[in-house]
Amino acid sequence: xxxxxxxxxxxxxxxxxxxxxDEILQMLxxxxxxxxxxxxxxxxxxxxxxxxxxxxx
Length: 57
Prior knowledge:
Mean pLDDT: 89
Radius of gyration: 14 Å
Number of helices: 3
Low-confidence stretches: none
Number of strands: 0
Strand content: under 5%
Helix content: over 70%
Structural class: mainly alpha
Largest sheet: none
C-alpha cells in the first residue's frame, strides 16, 4: 500500500477511536509527530529498531 494511503488509513483509524478530544492538544501532538517524522526523514535523528529498544526494557 502506498505511503500516502497508509497515512490516510492510520488517521481514519485513530479518528474512529477518539472522542471528546481537546482540539488544541490534538493539534500540538500532530505538530510534534510531524516534526519528529521530518527529523527522521532528513537524517537529523536516527531511529532505533524496536527489537533493540525492547531488549533494554
